[in-house]
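Risk register update: the risk of archive-format incompatibility is retired. Evidence:
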Amino acid sequence: MKMQHTEADYVAIAGTQHYYGTDFLRPGLLVHLRKEPDNAYDQEAIKVVLTPIGKIGYVANSPHTVPMGCRSAGRIYDTFEEHVAGIVRFVMKDVVIVELAPKLHEVYMVYESDAEESKKPSVL
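Archived output:
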């Protein structure tokens, strides 16, 4: 089932204190929400990944961790296949709010250049 949007959907990232904290997170960062079906603690676990760092937390899924105006992992779990992108919109102490962005995709290009090209400045 594909995600259908009529208005913005927001989720909160929980558990950041168990990974890298929130000091490095800024509005506008692209994150990836990936289902974690083998999670022993939560059948609807959705991990939040920041390239190239890795897992930075989970989509909040408890009434105690889901802020007002946000959706829980359980509410969005069946709205996408395995992965959906998100954009960090707010960072307040330990709370990170992410807007779901199902139409965004991150692409990396890796290529080998010859000796002459390697002397030219490049943009990554």
